[in-house]
Amino acid sequence: MNTKVVITWVQNNVAITALAVVAIILVALIYMFFTAGKTAADDLHKVEQERLLANTQLMQVRQQYNVDELQKQLDELNSGIATAKAVNKFPESINRDQLELDLANEASRRGVTLVSLSSITQSGTETIGGNTYNKSEINIKVEGLLNNTSLFLTSMEQGDFPTLKFKNVSLAKASEGEKWTTTFTLVVLSQS
Amino acid sequence: MNMEINLLPDELKPKPLVKPQTLMVIVAVLILGFGCFHFYSDKAGKQAEADDIQSKIAGIEQEITMLKTNSEAVALKDEVAAKQVEKNKYDTMNSDYETFTDARVEWGYVTSSVRENVPWGVSITSITQGGTDGKVVTVQGIANNFERETAYMAKLEADRFFSGVKTLSWEASTGQFSLSFDVQAGGGS
Fold first, then answer.
1. What is the ipTM of this complex?
2. Which of A42, A63, A84 delimits the end of a domain?
3. Per residue in B66-88, is it b (16+ CB within 10 Å) or e — as a string?
């Protein structure tokens, strides 16, 4: 009964019905374009962020791969290395001949007698500030006046081997006279 | 009083060109059509803008790739990295050297100071390095009396690099004593 009424109404109002159908289609299209517009806005926001990121990367890469800038950095580093190398105290290796020569010369200059000298041996490593350095050791026995022995030790400490130190130091006065016998291990650190 | 009376049957009466209801629907359709166009052009505009940005990003990425494959720049960059490592190595060694000297006991200074501080009535017979870190010094000797030995201790204590001077042993019959003290890190340097 209702269907019949509707069909009759539609037959009598064809134009309005057609326009109503068009209106419904338009509403559907508006909804579709509105949601698509929102998605497009989100996509636009996303690509804008990507462009910002890409621009930032480009600026970084331009700076990182700038030949003039790199050449400048290289020159500065070379200069810095030369300065740091000049003040570096850790030798690449120990010049054993030079060390023995220094010991002999300083002993003679300070008036102490080199009684015995072991051969220089590599005795493992020592860690300073998290870095490892090679350790060379030599056992030494000298005789002389206490004052001269102090001067000899100071000369060695302030000599050509700035990474030198003493361990197991023992000084004993002779039972007769003023001479002292000193035994110690001389340690020199070098780059590992 | 005049009154207009139309006696024609309904089907013959003049009808309006468009029914009011139809007109309303037409207006509604036009408004909806305009809205539809507005949302479509908005979406299309944003899509076009996004596509334009995408193509610009592609251009930027191409430039980045080109810069990163510039052989001259790449070679220089590698050289800079290698030099940086080398410089860091020397900087670290120079810093380590300061640590080394700060911790080192200067034995020339220690022995000299131990000798120079010996007072009248005291003689020393041995100086020995001890302690786990090598910073403890033991001195043995002979003193005329305990007072002389303590005078020696006071003089050693006054040295700014020595601390914790203490008697380890004292033998009144022979005057033999043994004392020890700590050498401060970097003592004498």
1. 0.74
2. A63
3. ebeeeeebeebbebbeebeebbe
Count structural domains, chain B. 2
Nearest C-alpha in B relative to A165? B104
Summarize pLDDT for A95-151 with one digit per residue, the tens: 999 999 999 999 999 999 999 999 999 989 999 988 899 999 999 999 999 999 999
Give the span between the Cα atoms of A103 and A124, in whole angstroms. Answer: 22
A49 touches chain B (CB under 8 A): no
> Of B88, B103, B118, which residue constitutes the final position of a domain?
B103
Q: How far is CA A67 from the centre of its chain?
A: 24
As a whole number of Å, the CA-based R_g of chain B is: 52
| B19–chain A nearest CA distance, Å | 9
Please give the Cα distance from A164 to A106 (Å, whole number): 14
On whether both A118 and A187 belong to a single domain, the answer is yes
Residue B86 lies in domain: 71-103
Same domain assignment for residues B95 and B140:
no
| Chain centroid offset of residue B81 CA | 20
A64 vs B: CB within 8 A: yes
C-alpha distance from A167 to closest chain B C-alpha (Å): 7
User: What tens digit of pLDDT does each residue of B103-160 get?
Assistant: 899 999 999 999 999 999 999 999 999 988 889 999 999 999 999 999 999 999 999 9
If asked whether residues B128 and B97 sit together in one domain, one would say no
Give the global pTM: 0.71
DSSP at B121: T
B83, B92, B98, B110, best to mutate vs chain A, most A CBs in 10 Å: B83
